[in-house]
Structures are given as C-alpha cells and as structure tokens.
UniProtKB/TrEMBL annotation:
Coiled coil: none annotated. InterPro entries: PH-like_dom_sf, PH_domain. It comes from the Eukaryota. Residues 60-186 form the PH domain. This is PH domain-containing protein. It comes from Brugia timori. Signal peptide: none annotated.
Length: 246
C-alpha cells in the first residue's frame, strides 16, 4: 500500500481497510497457507501413514454403535409404515461374534424386550450387507413387487441366503451399521459419511502435528554415506561387550 499524503487519503485508506475487512484477509491467507502445507509431498506421505490408524478408529466407533443397538422396523403387509408397524431390536454382542435380534413394540425399550424370542446370527455367516433405498425392499404381501416407501439395510445370511430387512429412515444409522458390519466380515468398504469423517480427523491430526513447524519441506534429503570409515574400530566384531545389571 502507498503511504497516504493527506489526512483525507488516510481516512479513505482506513475506511477501505477496516479491522473486520483485514481480519477476513488474514483468515484467507492463513487458510491458503494451511492448504498449501497440507498438499506438500512430505505431508501427503504422512497422511497416508496415518490413514490406517484413523480408519481403524472410525470403524471402532461404528462397532460401538452396533453394540449399543438400534430398534429397526420390520416389513409388514400394510402399505403404510406407520400403520401396524412392527419392530425388532438389533445389537452386536460384546465379543463381536454375533448379532442378537429381539422382537419389541414401538414403545418398548430394548431392556424390556422379550428375550425368549431372540434370533442370533453368527458374524461368520453374514455374506453381505446392503444399504437399501426406495424400491429395494420386497413387499411381504405381494411376491415380486417392490416397496417404494421404506429405507434401511438388508443382511444376507448363510449360503442360501436368508434375507433380513432392517428398516429405518435414519441415514446416519444406515451408514454406521453398514460400515460396522462390513468391518466385522472383512469387507474393506466405507460409506461416504465415514470417508468424510476419516478425512476430517486426518486434517485435525496433521494440523496438530504441524503446529510447531514454520516451514514444511517438499522433500527430505538423506545425507550421503561418509567416504571414510576409518573411525570404526577394525576389531569391533571381536570386541566383547559386557553388560552390567543394576
């Protein structure tokens, strides 16, 4: 900026560059600097190194969601989900070996559900889990037709396979259960929601690690080996090293 010659020009300059305006400029410069640092080769390599641990953390969270359980809806003959809707409570056991399903009512909590009619499904028997949208669920009343009013997930269990339809409109629950079950059966697949969470945690971890660094080099040069190794004793291989226990 040019130095103002008069008071009027100074006032115009201050009016054009007020503190709120300058604060926005500083924030924009800081964001641009952070974005540039996160795109350097060294940071990209660090990002790939940290990614597996962050993915493991997110999947661990998904498994905890399964252990807490969720009350899903059942497919019913009625065309309306609200009329005559039936429910069942699903949860993952503490050992992560099986899914436990219990019939319950709309007002009934999981702790009061009837445990005598439990359905237990071994994780090893689950072939796949699929998130279903409109038209992906069959009606129980009319064979071959699709139900366009429901959402949820479908479990394929066994070699036949047996299908279990777990209905819910909660997109976050659908993603969490798909991610958790895929992790349990060894399918390397993350929902878009989980991928965004991994990227967000990665950026936070990287920013925390880069706080004390003023400049991030694009590459790290490894110094060459010394040309002279005379400083190493020739009889080092024959030297007996004694260790004294304290």
């Amino acid at each position: 900026l040019e130095k103002p010659d008069t008071i009027e020009k100074l006032e115009e300059l201050l009016a054009a560059h007020s503190y709120p305006h300058m604060k926005k400029i500083w924030e924009k410069e800081r964001s641009a600097k952070e974005a540039e640092e996160l795109q350097s080769d060294a940071v990209k390599e660090l990002r790939e190194y940290l990614r597996p641990s962050i993915v493991e953390l997110v999947l661990k969270n998904r498994k905890c969601v399964l252990k807490s359980g969720y009350k899903f809806g059942k497919l019913v003959k009625s065309k309306s989900m609200q009329k005559g809707q039936q429910f069942w409570f699903w949860k993952l056991d503490a050992n992560e070996k099986m899914l436990i399903c219990t019939d319950c009512s709309n007002t009934e909590s999981s702790s009061n559900a009837n445990s005598s009619g439990n359905i237990k499904i071994d994780i090893a028997d689950i072939q796949s889990v699929v998130a279903g949208g409109e038209g992906d669920f069959p009606k129980s009343s009319t064979k071959g037709k699709k139900n366009s009013n429901v959402r949820g997930i479908t479990l394929e269990v066994g070699d036949k396979p047996d299908l279990y339809h777990l209905l819910t409109f909660d997109e976050q629950t659908i993603n969490a259960w798909c991610d958790g079950i895929n992790a349990l059966i060894g399918v390397n697949k993350l929902s878009i929601q989980a991928q965004r969470q991994v990227d967000r945690f990665l950026n936070i971890e990287l920013k925390m690690r880069l706080l004390e660094l003023d400049h991030i080099p694009n590459s790290i040069e490894i110094p060459p080996l010394p040309k002279n190794f005379d400083w190493i004793p020739k009889d080092i291989a024959d030297t007996k090293i004694s260790v004294t226990k304290v």
